[in-house]
Design brief:
With 374 residues, the protein is an alpha+beta fold. It contains 8 helices and 10 strands. The strands form 2 sheets. It has a 6-stranded antiparallel β-sheet with strand order 1-2-6-5-4-3. Strands 7-10-8-9 form a 4-stranded mixed β-sheet. The longest helix is centred in the first third of the chain and has 37 residues. It is elongated and about 80 Å long. The N and C termini lie far apart (96 Å).
């Protein structure tokens, strides 16, 4: 055998060994991915919500809090979450927001800083961030101020709430931490922190866990977090999911007609189901007034135009606004209005009428406008 032949045999042998090694590594990766996938539930996909709506989101399994031996499980892909996967509790719930201050600690937040009648907050549901809206209670604790005979570690703080929530029939529903990928998928840290009330910073260094307590007709979302701040801090958000009770009255048919004659358009504040285009029952009186307006003037033609604030993804908001305008049109046609007299379109966040940097401004921007077209 020549030297050249021997060299060729050696090279071929090395190539074969490398291929085997790569095959083994690929097999290991597939097995690891399969193991993660087995832990994740199936369910309808849920997008992070925008406009004034809360996302219909759910859980990715009852994973436990980390022990001293390891960190929480980290999913490689966003997990979908189905709220119905969490069984309603049979426990008798104490008054909202359920929890007293932990022994030796005092909530740093007081008054209106501690209670919000209506707001939005990001929660990790399954493998991604979603928003929920409703009544909020906020807690902020300086763990460094805990008494010397009962100094709270971050882990003890988290475990106390896990145990208390379990006693109320709740379940942990988050399966990931705030990796850069999870943060980016929700629109980035700047977007998240618009609705990140009284919680440790939205950064991977903090530890975050979401819990859900369900009753027959209510959802209570709980965010417990700690870390990423010196001195050590613990944070809790308890949100009772519910729609906002509007403080803005609606115009009757006569007032709508006057506004249309003066300005050519009139803004309406119509209630829809959360992150959907389904009209809520309390929207029907306003739809009836629009029908009365059209019935009183058979020559009147209207463009029904949907608008949102600038929270969340612009494309999602445009699609939502378009669907909502169509729903109003469909409701009017259902009451007998000739569809040739109506048109609909959605602009999403593109045409604000107020400052989106305030709650009041965003509320004014979430509207349906009737625009006279003849």
């Amino acid at each position: 055998m020549t030297i050249r032949t021997v060299g060729l045999v050696v090279i071929l042998a090395l190539v074969a060994l490398t291929a085997c090694s790569k095959k083994d590594q690929a097999t290991e990766r597939r097995e690891a991915d399969a193991a993660v996938a087995e832990q994740m539930p199936s369910g309808p996909a849920t997008l992070p919500t925008s406009d004034s709506e809360s996302g219909d989101s759910g859980s990715a399994g009852n994973t436990s809090l980390p022990t001293s031996d390891g960190a929480p499980p980290m999913a490689t892909m966003a997990a979908d979450f189905d709220v119905s996967s969490v069984a309603p509790t049979s426990a008798s719930l104490p008054p909202f927001p359920f929890f007293k201050d932990p022994e030796g600690l005092e909530n740093d937040l007081k008054g209106t800083d501690a209670v919000k009648s209506f707001d939005r907050h990001y929660f990790i549901a399954g493998g991604k961030l979603v928003t929920q809206e409703g009544r909020e209670a906020l807690f902020q604790y300086n763990l460094g101020n805990s008494p010397a005979d009962h100094h709270y570690s971050e882990l003890e703080f988290l475990r106390n709430y896990e145990n208390a929530i379990a006693a109320l029939g709740g379940r942990k529903i988050s399966s990931v931490q705030l990796t850069p990928e999870v943060i980016a998928a929700a629109g980035g840290r700047e977007q998240i922190e618009k609705y990140w009330a009284a919680a440790a910073p939205a950064v991977p260094e903090a530890e975050h866990h979401t819990f859900l307590i369900r009753t027959a007709d209510k959802e209570y979302w709980v965010h417990v977090s700690a870390g990423a701040i010196i001195p050590s801090m613990g944070f809790v958000v308890v949100l009772e999911k519910q729609g906002m009770k509007s403080s803005i009255g609606f115009l009757d048919a006569a007032a709508m007609k006057k506004e249309l004659e003066a300005k050519g358009r009139v803004a309406l504040y119509i209630n829809f189901d959360t992150d959907k285009a389904t009209l809520r029952p309390d929207a029907q009186p306003l739809i009836a007034e629009v029908n009365k307006l059209l019935t009183s003037d058979e020559s009147l033609k209207l463009s029904i135009e949907g608008h949102t604030d600038n929270s969340g993804g612009a494309e999602h908001n445009r699609a939502l606004a378009t669907s909502r305008a169509r729903s109003v049109l469909g409701a009017l046609v259902g009451l007998g209005v000739d569809p040739s007299r109506l048109a609909s379109k959605g602009f999403g966040p593109d045409k604000p009428i107020a400052d989106n940097s305030t709650d009041e401004g965003r509320a004014k921007n979430r509207r349906v406008e009737l625009v006279k077209t003849n």
